[in-house]
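Thread title: Can someone regenerate the structure for this chain?

I was given the following input by a collaborator and told the matching structure tokens would be attached. They weren't. Posting the sequence so someone can regenerate them.
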Amino acid sequence: HLLRMNSWMLSQKYRIFLSNGPDEIARNSENRYRDFIITEKHEDDGNISFDFGEVDLNRDAYDQLQWLVRNKVKARIKPLEEGREEFVKYGEEREDREYVKYLTSEDLPLLDQVEELFNETDIESTTYHDDLDPSFQAIRIRNHEGKMVIGLQHYWKNQLLGNTGLFNLYYKEGGGHEPIDEPIITIPDRLDAVYYDGVLFIFEDWRFEQMFDYHRVYEEISEEVIDSVRENEVEFQNMDMVEDAILSNPIMMRKLDDVKRTGYYQQIDTDDIEWVIDEYDREGIRIEGTGSDREVVLSNRRKVWELIHILNDDHVESRLTDTAYQTTGKEEI
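Best answer:
Regenerated them for you:
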């Protein structure tokens, strides 16, 4: 109960935080420090780095971007205040529609690589050009006290219009169309995350994960869980298939994040796996062999889900109906 109360108090704190901070800064017409940053991600020998560049825009464009940040933040605040959505720490829930996720910057694995975006005011100029492949875009608004709110947008390649066509057209005032030689860049009418005062508020999990290369974090978590299961002397007939099935499936890797947080996998052994298989009549997973030579056998890659559900203690039984369930969403009470 104390854990749930602390979680509720933290959620209330961040709800007020989001309401009073970003909305206030984005609403204030006196905020004249605004910029639009595009971020390109690089990888060298497994190491991730980012380059930041400021795109020069006119005042009308900055006004629209500021309005976008305020409007999208307000749109998420209202259902939070009405109880239709709630705050949860990033990774604790998988649905986007009913939750706003939060993540402190200290918990962001790539913090050192993106700290310039959060703190540096003087960023070199750049443009959208043929060789550029951005990871995300950032709308930064700062007040006279130095407080900054940053709206983050995952970059889609379809934002670049007309780079493969014969030419582009635009409609001239007064009638008629005129060709444009250069491609057209569109800015989406959405926010995927907002940063304010050391906290990231995440509106859309998948786009956030793409921006910050979060699948690498899930890979590391999955490998850690797999190694721990091996240390419990659980043997598999085809461990290579199990690993490949997990590490090639982002949904499985995200589920392994749940497995790590619950922590049950650290104490599960072959006897426990065999008990769940027999008790709940699971198909596609079985134990072969005797004594110390026993192995877990999975009939195909899809049945790796059965193993993951066992590691996450997803099997329960109702005393009211004597019905057994495999549940993917449960709350300890």
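The two ends are 8 Å apart (CA to CA).
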